[in-house]
Amino acid sequence: MKRSTAVVALLVCAGVMWVLGSQNWGAEVVNQTPEGVQDVGSEAVTNRVGIALAAVAAVLAVLLAMVGRFGRWVVAVMYALSSMVFAVVAVAQTDAGILRWAGLAVGVLGAGLSLFIARASGDWTTRNKYDRDAHTSTDEPDSVSDWDALTRGEDPT
Fold first, then answer.
1. Is the dihedral of CA 35, 36, 37, 38 positive or negative?
2. Closest Cα partner for 64 from 112, 15, 5, 106?
3. What is the pLDDT of residue 46?
């Protein structure tokens, strides 16, 4: 799995968590209010903890692209933890109906995906502008070796 694909997959999972967290988690309770009982508030009851956990997951997904080998494991485990806490918070919402099960599914999926990505990220390399391509032979002169020869005082021509 490529680094960009992994980051996008984790961002999509965090986005789904965000959407689920921003839904009205108290819709069934409001609709089942008995007649004669005053409704305390008609504003939507969102899962603020779920939204915060989704934001943390999105930041961790972006951070995954920037860290080294050990950092990827740390970030992936933190992403898995935030996903599992999202799942637990979703299941704890007893009046949420189908949203609680969707939140559980997305949380478990995010945790599994992040750990799979941590395992698959072992072959990711950190590249910089000084790395040479694997296809370049060391016998053939190139611009970098020409500059190095000039630095040593040799004429590469």
1. positive
2. 5
3. 64
pLDDT band at 29 (very low <50, low <70, confident <90, very high): very low
CA distance 42 to 48: 17
pLDDT per position as a tens digit, 80-139: 999 999 999 888 877 777 888 898 999 999 999 999 988 888 777 666 555 555 445 556
Query: How far is 65 from 32, CA to CA, in rounded Å?
Result: 46
Q: Judge contact between 60 and 110, C-beta under 8 A.
A: no
Q: 74 — phi, psi (to 5°)? A: -65, -45
Q: Give the contacts of 26 (CB within 8 A, at least 6 positions apart).
A: 44, 45, 95, 96
| 3-class state of residue 64 by DSSP | helix
Q: Could you tell me if 116 and 12 are in contact, meaning their C-beta atoms sit under 8 angstroms apart?
A: no
